[in-house]
Design brief:
Blueprint lengths: L26 H11 L1 H14 L10 H24 L3 H12 L13 E2 L9 E2 L1 H12 L4 E4 L7 E5 L5 E5 L1 H9 L1 H17 L10 H26 L5 H41 L1 H13 L13 H9 L4 H32 L4 H18 L1 H23 L8 H9 L6 H18 L34 E2 L40 E15 L3 H10 L3 E4 L4 E4 L7 E7 L2 E11 L3 E12 L6 E17 L2 E19 L1
Helix pairs in contact: 1-3, 1-9, 2-3, 3-8, 3-9, 6-7, 7-9, 7-10, 8-9, 9-10, 9-12, 10-11, 12-13, 12-14, 12-16, 13-16, 14-15, 14-16
Amino acid sequence: MDPVPARDPGRRAPVTPRIPAPEPPPWLWLCLLLFVLQVPGLLGQVSYRGSGLGEIDGAQEGRSVTAMLSLVQLLPLGFLLAAALALLAPRARCRFVERRYGLLPLDHPLMAPTARPGSGAGGTGVPHFHEQLTAVLNEHASGVELRVSTSSGLFARVYPAGLRTARVGVFAPFVHLWHTDPQAAHAVLMHELGHLRHGDQHVAGLGSPFTALVRGWPYVFAVLVVPPVTWLFVTGDATARPVLAEVVLILCSLPMVLLLVVAALWSAELAADRVAIRECGAEAVVRALRALQEGDLGGLARLHHPPIRLRVRFALRASDPAAQSLLTLLWPLALLTKLLIAVLGALSAYALLGARQDRLAGHVLGLAHTSLTADPAWWATLAVVLLWPTVTAALARTGRRAIHTTPTVQAAWTAQAVRLPRPYAIAALLPAMLLLLGLLPLGPGPTQGLFPDDRRNTSGSPTAPGLGQPDKATPTPCIGSAPPPAPAQPPGLPTFGARRRTPSGTPVAPLPDGPRTFRTAAVVSAETLSGSPQWAHNFGDRLRRTGWTLHTDGRLTADTAEVPVLRSTAAHGTTRLFNGRRTTGTDVGTTTTWMEARLVAGRDGPSRLDLIRASVQALRTGSGCRASSFTTSTSMRLSLDLREQ
């Protein structure tokens, strides 16, 4: 590791100062924040799918597969939560990184001496590599410590040493590059300090669970999904068809998770390249990238770094407005691609479950339209795009930068507070237009009739299969004022177990110790299965403080008229299953409500009540001798904590 006399690497090639392009927003931090905020909702979705998929239509097989699929969906959350927790323990991460990669301080006995006598006249000493590199760090990022490793495979990385401190680790290939092409090595170092200036080392970099997710998630996905699902189909399990639909959704979750993380990581890498270009020039950065390409190990490691060819093209076009706009648009485009993948996945899953082709597209597009304004990522993206230039300008005015900046650069950043730069204005158009589309009063896609139903009403015309959408007017005999017949139960509802017919008033298992009374203590979860996303939450609010009575004959009743009388269908220890039904009618409409329940009534602890509720309203109107039918439906799943009284 002894140096070879060369040009002073601390001297940069002269670069003509230009007005710098605006920096891309901190998508890496936004990505982590959004994932952390969505953890509670994602956990609820995974819990529902994991517990309900194996129970569709009473089938009890496939539980191990569905449990495995639920685990697969939880793993990205585990990585992301670990990344969030790593922010709170930077010193522990620092110790792990230095042990893992053999990064040693400069005064370690294994490191070379600090200087070597020169061979020139007068015996002038040539600064050692350590001194040269330390001088560069002191010039650009005072306080950043240097660590050196003799291992290969990496060039240089920055990682946190504390909440406000950081270290730069350099490896054997970087030392070789420093001796053979100092300007290229200097560009590599400026790239890492660019990460430091943006604070990326806390989220990405060495020892980050965020980048570990990108490297390991595809392998974990292949191991935990492919073998169990293959076994399920080989054995001919009865739940193979619904599980296949679930597998389609999980297969879509792989690119959906990776898209946002990869887009955030690529944006951070390209932004750090721009710092190196500003400090060292594009030619030195391109030579450094070529050197990195020679040591590229390939594989999934390329996911958390952009391809070298892409980085070279961005480096050569650093001042091109199109390249600046594309860099700023990288994250919004990933969000749009994620939405498109979700739509394609939903179309495939519904088709596998037998949905009607004429209703499928409208239903899925309705869900996509609703998700535009419900997803906080689009609102956060628009806010960041609009506010980040002002934040950058404020930081430039206060001088809070990890790398030295020239007055020209600071003046350009300050000017960004006056007007929105063109790349940001272009990037703001995409989320703004989509949010505007989401706010338009477009009707949701049809829900009732999404699955085929051969039942016919008494008039001989099919029940209208749209949500608030009338069937085509059908000539019938002149109708009277009689309401339509009771609608059929929606297909595809989950259930807590096999449906068993029980004679009215006959309990499955009498209660030996008299009736028990409960009151709702808390609504743990409320999820809409079909219909408006707010319906389940509204119904859950109405069940708060509701009283429940478990009678000696096995009936479960509530002190609200919205819950029909539930009768026991099965009893296993402290767990009882119930179902109930109620039909009400008016002059022109009939509404039927179905409800299933599972009560786990403990003696020494809290009780749990799980509910599945479906309601279908059929309306029939006539004008002259022409009749039109309308149906609306909703289904939901809720979990309540009960307190015995």
